[in-house]
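Fold it.
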Amino acid sequence: TITAKVGQTIELTFHNIGKMPKAAMGHNVVFLSPGSDANAYAAAAAQSKANDYIPESMETFAHTELLGPGESDTIEFKVTEAGEYPFLCSFPAHLFAGMRGTLIVEE
């Protein structure tokens, strides 16, 4: 769980400390809008290999790049509405392995 206040800018640096190649075990962090269905997103993401598992057919609030071992990416975004924003790793099956959480934005 990550908590923030409305209007806050969030800076997230994500490091993949794994050892397996990106094609076999890439990782990212994808933030969805409040009310989004993380399971439906993950299903669509699994079909989006050509786009690094970010489905063009579904809304994505913010996301890091898909990272291989030893790689890092920093993203910055502002939350302007209160709510619960699901986040997940969109690499196939990672959501179901527990790579998920919630960004809680409060007034």
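The beta strands are 2-5, 9-15, 30-31, 62-63, 72-78, 83-88, 100-106.
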